[in-house]
Amino acid sequence: MESVISSDWLLNYLDDPNVVIIDCRFDLSRPSWGRQQYEASHIPGAFYLDLNQDLSSPVQKHGRRHPLPHPETLAQKLENMGIHFSQTRVVAYDDSRFAFAARLWWLMRYFGHDQVAVLDGGWRAWKMAGYPVSSAIPSSKTGNFPPQLRNDWVVDIEEVKARQEDRNAVIIDSRDADRYRGEREPIDPVAGHIPGAVNFPWKTASDEQGNLYSPAQQRQRWLNGDPAIGENQEKIVYCGSGVTACVNLLSLHLAQLPQGKLYAGSWSDWCSYLEQ
Fold first, then answer.
1. Would the pLDDT of 275 be above 70?
2. Which CATH superfamily is domain 4-128 in?
3. Of all helices (H) and strands (E), which one includes residue 172?
4. What is the pLDDT of residue 156?
5. Is 239 a catalytic residue?
6. What is the 3-state composition of the chain as percent helix, strand, coil, each rounded to the nearest 5?
7. Whole-structure pTM over 0.90, yes or no?
8. 12-21, 37-46, 202-211, 265-274, range with the lowest pLDDT
């Protein structure tokens, strides 16, 4: 399955029992907003997964704001949507330039399920096309989803520290440039970035309308950017809490570059040790 699909494609597969649509809309400042929006109007047949409640574990002292969800817990929710491991085609969407849809896209693949895509342009593109919407909540279904974790896709703080001086690796900060520079920090108690990290803001993978740039443009973004990233360098990607970093992991995938690794705790984990 392609990792990015269009609204036109999805319209043609709305009634396909082997396609499951998941609404991932969320607002960090208003945690209940996404579910409220979903309940009011969504793509017909879509289920909903909440960043805080479904796509993350509870907040921790270290690992902080959005630790990865417990595999069995999320797997049960996926089964209740009728998802069958390695078979069902899953489409994730949001209205935040993939900030939350990419988290689900990455999680599904981390769990071993490659049949997953994001909706290009998200909710906005679907609405702009004039395609049908619904407020009906779909009934639970029966699936089979035994996760097979790709544990080498995730690194912890110790591995990040071990790679800081490694020329064969690059640490990529996915946050906005002013947060990377430490000029603004609206969420975490400490401003700045991991020493040695370079900045590739996640929003630069798409345009302002929420359309992803082409694979060729994604590749140019990495290999001809400032700074340029070596094609075969090991890429460790982080953000504030391991969520929007997944947009950069999607970008690397589209650029056909070697699989990047997620520092799941990200800056919220790193700076939790600086507080001590």
1. no
2. Rhodanese-like domain (3.40.250.10)
3. strand 169-173
4. 95
5. yes
6. 30, 15, 55
7. yes
8. 265-274
